Amino acid sequence: MNEDLFLKNYDYFLPKELIASKPLEDKEQTRLLIYERSKDKIIHTKFKYLQDFLPNCAIIFNDTKVIKARIFAKKPSGKLCELFFHKNLSQNEFLVQIKGRVKKGDFLDLEKGIKIKILKLNEDGTRVVRFIKNELFLKDSEVFSLLEKIGHIPLPPYIKRADEKDDEKDYQSIFAKNLGAVAAPTASLHFDEKILKKLAKNHDFYTLTLHVGAGTFKGVECENIKDHFMHKEAYELEKKLIELIKSKEPMLCVGTTTTRAIEYFVRTKLEKGWCDLFLNPFNKPLRVNHLLTNFHLPKTSLIMLVASFIGRKKTLELYEEAIKEKYRFYSYGDAMLLV
Fold first, then answer.
1. E strands, the chain, where?
2. Cβ(113)–Cβ(134) under 8 Å?
3. How does pLDDT run across 226-266, given as a tens digit for each residue?
4. Which of the residues 272, 303, 333, 336 could staple to 236 if both were Cys, CB 3.0 to 4.6 A apart?
5. Across-strand partners of 41?
6. Measuring CA to CA, which residue among 297, 292, 230, 290 is closest to residue 264?
7. What are the CA-CA distances from residue 59 to residues 8, 203, 292, 333 (Å)?
8. CB atoms < 10 A from the CB of 118, how many?
9. Alpha helices in the chain (DSSP H)
10. CA distance 52 to 26
């Protein structure tokens, strides 16, 4: 039986001190592990030298913007509870997670006379709710505006600290403009104006939108990874990018989100919709040539996506090398380039 099938074989041990809780102030000093596939060669360098190792290729970024998705409300008992906003289901119905017990029909109190009504309790622990003010349902644009005023940046669960003012800037990419994600496309966090100016001399930039969902943090739970069902995330591609995809020009995807959106389009020809593509060693990329990504949690679809490019064994070998060299892991950590 092929060992790549089994979830247990995508595991690795990470010392806690290698989990980055904050980004580096100088993005150019981020460490970069480069794997040259044609030479089977590993290079250790800094992000400031990225352009020196990139082949001729277009570069694709995700322009989603992270919502301030964590909010606090009072339960009927008067106790404070935390809500995590997932996404809008319609113009005035929304999917959330709520810490603590609630019942269908309960009202939670927010500030300024706004209430949240619990419409449905889903089996997976999520809740369907409406936001209400003066007996009127708030529309999605109004709810997004409210979250920006009273919400907190949804730092990933492995960052064991409260969000701070700096996270409002640090946990958004330089391309962020389309509000809708509840997690950052973290490979993009390494870029600033200085780095982009260097890259623009030899590379064309493209953007797409994929709103990263809370499911990105969920581990694969099936013993056989082929049994895994991916969460769905809203995406949209521009005509200019679609023309690039249809060409033969090499592409570097910045992050797993851009990779999945492009590969989903290649398979479906749908310019927008809901992406649920699971890339892994048994479902490899058909169009994307190169990948820039962060280091991901074990037993997740993200590390399996990396393995779809270079295989499971090589992926784990590179991760062990990064651990040995004390790279910083996860959202605010260092980066890896596959060329």
1. 31-36, 41-46, 58-62, 64-66, 70-74, 80-88, 94-98, 107-109, 114-121, 126-133, 136-137, 178-181, 205-210, 233-237, 251-254, 272-275, 290-294, 335-338
2. yes
3. 999 999 999 999 999 999 999 999 999 999 999 999 999 99
4. 272
5. 36
6. 230
7. 34, 7, 10, 21
8. 18
9. 50-53, 140-150, 167-170, 193-199, 239-246, 256-268, 301-310, 312-324
10. 19
pLDDT tens-digit series, residues 23-35:
999 999 999 999 9
Question: What domains, with CATH codes, occur in the chain?
Answer: 3-66+165-338 (3.40.1780.10), 70-150 (2.40.10.240)
Q: What does the alpha-carbon distance between residue 53 and residue 45 come to, in Å, rounded to a whole number?
A: 10
Please say whether the beta carbons of 329 and 20 come within 8 A.
yes
pLDDT digits 0-9 by tens, 159-199? 999 999 999 999 999 999 999 999 999 999 999 999 999 99
Structure tokens at 126: 């999520």
What tokens were used for 307? 């393995």
Q: What is the pTM of this model?
A: 0.93
